[in-house]
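Weekend entry, working from home. Most of the wet-lab plans are on hold until the incubator is repaired, so I used the time to fold the two sequences that have been sitting in the queue since the last round of cloning. Logging both here for the record. First:
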Amino acid sequence: MSSPTSPLRTTPLHSVHRSLGATLVDFHGWEMPLRYGTIPEEHLRVRETAGVFDLCHMGRLLFTGAQAENWLQRVLSVDVSRLGTGRAKYALLLNEDGRPIDDAIVYRRESEWLLVVNASNRERVIAWCEAHRPAGEASLEDHTFDTAMIAVQGPTSAALCASVISEPEKPWNEIRYYEITRATYQPKGRGPVPVDVARTGYTGEDGFEVFVPSDEAEGFWNAVLAAGGDRAAPIGLGARDTLRLEAGMPLYGNEIDETTDPLEAGLTFALHLDKPVEFLGKKALLERQARGVARRLRGFRLESRRIPRQGMSILLDGRAVGTVTSGAPSPTLGYPIAMGYLDVDAEEQGADRLELDVRGRGERIQLHALPFYSRKRKKGS
């Protein structure tokens, strides 16, 4: 959050949000849209057709130079040398104790690397990376303010993007998940604008994140919504949160932070402990891996209609054995869902007796495999 004396930052789409009547909130020092209508309506729009998100507040850091790869090998938990040109990977930046400073997506271009980080951690990530800069030619440029990032998510997102964006390096149906490609956006009355299009997202649906120059953000946003008509809608942070919760995706500040362990959080897929470079936090992770974890991140649903909230205690026979990290009613599934950390011993001893402490009253909960929602299962594949 911002301090009482510092003005909120705004994205290049701020005037658009105001004109659409968005409810604006302070999100880590940025004035961002929470919702335009109702959160359930926006959520279901993404599940059914397509939604458009302002992600300009997220940090966009460009690494270049002969030592850029070695630099990222040191500060990221994944082996970036495995990434081919045009590929992307979810990664963690860890402190020396192997605890997350941030989570990020790293994209590999021909001769450069793009790292997209959380708005709340951008300045700290820059300082952390600079503190571990390698010898030799390498540079880090912050492009958060001269580029914009807009997401188009939902089952019809590919067709919607194709109606506005042309000349991708690959046909739309051949762009793989976690792949980035160059393309062209053609504003009305002006020359073509190069853009980057990544098949990534944070909703559990198919979708794209588009990187455009900041001065083209408003025109691109309006063009996408106009092309989508009544089958596309602007989506705020509220629905973004319920969408990612259904998809079982962690949020920094909820499921992960510097007090949590990525082993507990089930993020071993983002820990390449066998990579040849000794990345920051690796030694501590290996020590904890050998000991085993005492708790794990789990999904669960309530049997009642009460709403689980971050910080609520999970109980076993009246004893606190875990804590909720995220919770909400699920617009897709129709019942309350949550993620939280649960003691391993408690899960083994009494998974069928777990309750949630809701204002002093125990509400029965059932463990639920993550993710709660999968578009693959929806399609029957």
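Second, folded right after the first finished:
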Amino acid sequence: MYGSMLEAIKGRLESPTSILTHMQCPRKYYYRYIKRLGQEQSIYLVMGSIVHSTIAAFHRTDISEIPSECFFEILRSKTMGDLDTRWVENRDELERLNLNPEEITSFYDEARSMIGNFCQYHVNKLIACQYRYNISAAEAFRRLRPKAETKITSEKLGIMGVIDAIHNFDGETVIIDYKTSKKDEIDTDCMVQLAIYALLYREYFGRLPDKLGIHFLRHGERIIRVSPGLLAWGKKKCDEIRDLTASREEADYPKKVSGLCKYRTGQCDYYGLCRD
């Protein structure tokens, strides 16, 4: 029995989210990933999922029937329409959150603003590419189209991740993660996530990406270069988490009290359990 338990623990793959959860609070990690108690749905999770799937669909857009003379206008219109469709498709999920109509409308407006920002940012890049290389808008779109939502699993590292966008253009590879949060800086959590993506990319593709970035959809892109120090630090974090999560005993996952336990607009999914 002890041996099979070790094998189960050994075979469990971490993700950037699980690693960041442990860094935030080991007890929260225990409830979610050891006891598998699940996670309460929230407007932020629903909105984030809708926005991310809309962006992934943007990158997969069939541009063969978009006329060149109004390419950017139709591309933007199609993307905003796709967001609206996905919002309606999630209506039941949204209604289960017990928000009033004004609150739902406010979050819908936020989602439209973020997708609008994304479209404008990408259209600007397309126009710059179009004029730099004297090519059509459609050709610029094809050249800038990234690999979207690429899932990479590493048994060696014991981690897996889904990279939002991998751009290969002008001899450079840039990994981008999209964020719907209100922050506008690459903090420690973002650095951990980007370091893990760089490690996964290197193992899967056999080389390092050139740059890593976060596209804060409320603000814009923030880009950093890959460095040996970042990779070493990311690998160290992965190794640390693996050691710290080998146990299945609750006592080995201490509570980390912070402002994330209970805050103005909500509380941790396991707040009640921690108080018992």
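Plan for Monday: verify the second prediction. Residues 43-144 form one domain.
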